[in-house]
Amino acid sequence: MVEAFQEALADAAIDRDAIQMAWLGTQKPEVNVGKGSLPLSLALRLPNIPVTRVENYCATGTEALRGAVYAVASGACDIALALGVEKLKDTGYGGLPAPGSAMGTLLWQVAPNVTAPGSFAQLASGYAAKHGLGMDDVKRAIAQVSVKSHENAVLNPKAHLRREVSIEDVLNAPLVAHPLGLYDCCGVSDGSACAIVATPEIAKSLGTDAIVSVKALQLAASNGSESGFDGWDVDHFVTTTKCAVAAYNEAGIEKPREEISMMEVHDCFSITELVTMEDLQMSDRGRAVYDVLDGVYNRDGAMPCQPDGGLKCFGHPIGASGLRMVYEMYLQLHGRAGERQLENVRNGLTHNLGGTPQQNVASISIVGRYGE
Questions:
Q1: Could you tell me the mean pLDDT of each successive run of 10 residues in the chain, 372 residues long?
Q2: Whether 267 contacts 312, CB under 8 Å
Q3: Which of 23, 76, 264, 311 stands 20 to 30 A from 327 (CA)?
Q4: How far apart are CA 53 and CA 82, in angstroms?
Q5: Active site residues
Q6: Residues 149 and 256 in one domain
Q7: Is position 23 within any domain?
Q8: Which domain holds residue 76?
Q9: How many domains does the chain fold into?
Q10: Are both 222 and 342 inside the same structural domain?
Q11: Whole-angstrom distance, CA of residue 350 vs CA of residue 134
């Protein structure tokens, strides 16, 4: 928390006393039960300002940003802080259930036999069945999703996994939940990310040469229809599809494939990223398999996705992931992404998906240069 905060303060060139409100995003209750917003206020020595703790599954980091952005936009304050953090290693969370323990399962009090890999593996089966694809073709495409992210992470000093892998490495890795193998799954990690939000006028007064503005912040939550056998074929995310439409409308984007320059999406599993490309209208339904294999989403492709390496190579500190994605968009828009810098960037999109395919929360943010 402290490292991310200090970097943000230095980048904004302000004193901590200039911050008027703050939002803390952290998801796992084991670390924060009974402590509310105090972990943020105490660790950062904030000047007795209002601090709100938020949690919304894997959209927690973006939820913190949403609170800070809405506060500034409404005039409630001039400068706000959003920080997401998670120490999953302290909770014992491993993604899969350990013998004699309920940790690692989703909704363990209600569904102790449900795991994240098992839930999203069913998405791969549903997607293949819906579009008449062979599982070998789907598995090769999602392998390329991971290969691409690893290639990008090699160029990112903050990524945790900085080693290239081949499609063969991914295909031959140990199986976790068919058809997902070891390299189809993101890791469990600790991490933090921080953003300072202000009005354009204040940003200009601080000497900022190019302002990165928030053009859209949308969120959609499942209402139970996906798990109610209403015709959903387990082939896409209902929430992401609806959230994308709302975000494009808010940002005034009519042609996403032409107007979105780069993306950071929720690749908790490689199949999640592939399906999300269709929900975001970047690929036509049933065509993401081919677009991925054709390199459309590579760093040098038409629509770069995960230029920093994604969850696949950062791990997924749940409260931090949404803000980490926005951090990469911020660096790219300022031309400060180093070796992984993209050319001609205009608008960046981030996407989080929390929960399971049949019951989840989707959040989307769109950021770009102010006035463009």
A1: 96 95 86 72 95 95 98 97 90 59 49 80 96 97 98 97 97 96 93 96 84 96 87 94 98 97 98 98 98 98 98 95 98 96 96 94 96 80
A2: yes
A3: 76
A4: 10
A5: 58, 316
A6: yes
A7: yes
A8: 2-91+192-205
A9: 2
A10: yes
A11: 30
